[in-house]
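User: Hey, my collaborator sent me this sequence without any context and asked if I could get a structure. I don't really work with proteins. Can you help?
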Amino acid sequence: MDSDNLAVIIYEDESTAEKVFNTLKEMQDEYLIKLSDIAYVTKDASGKVHVHEGDNEAAAGAIGGGFWGLLLGLIFFVPFLGLAVGAATGAIAGAMSHYGIDDKFLTELREKMKDSSSAIFVIFHDAKPDKVLPRLSEYGGTVLRTSLSKDAEKQLQDSISKGAPHM
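Assistant: No problem. I've predicted the 3D structure and written it out in structure-token form, which is a compact way to encode the shape of the chain:
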């Protein structure tokens, strides 16, 4: 993969996205995937949204530090004090249109993120699917959106569905 790809995966509990976040960072250290940007969101039992961004080079990646916090804050209506939201939303809209994120996606994300759930947002390239997919499959989840080809997106969803914990 030469260009950046986006993947957004939702999990039915609050802790799984953090585990996937850490696993992806480990896989980057093992040169199995190159992360451009990564963040995860948790929604607690009372419906409060918490945005968690990376603390290394992946967090300050191609889009720039603070991007995920701003984008996800706008999606989930998290207030930002003293922020010039008008200018920022234009920049966000331009960056995310490249990945096919539009109002329909934002609405779908808000609806599917139930209380006590989490989601991971990853922009990546140079992944080794034969190594990455088996490790991601351990966590299950639902692929909400990718910028991958339809075949690659199906392979991702099939892989994580196969490994989903059975309750």
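In plain terms: The beta strands are 5-11, 34-43, 49-53, 117-125, 142-146. You can pass these tokens on to your collaborator as they are.
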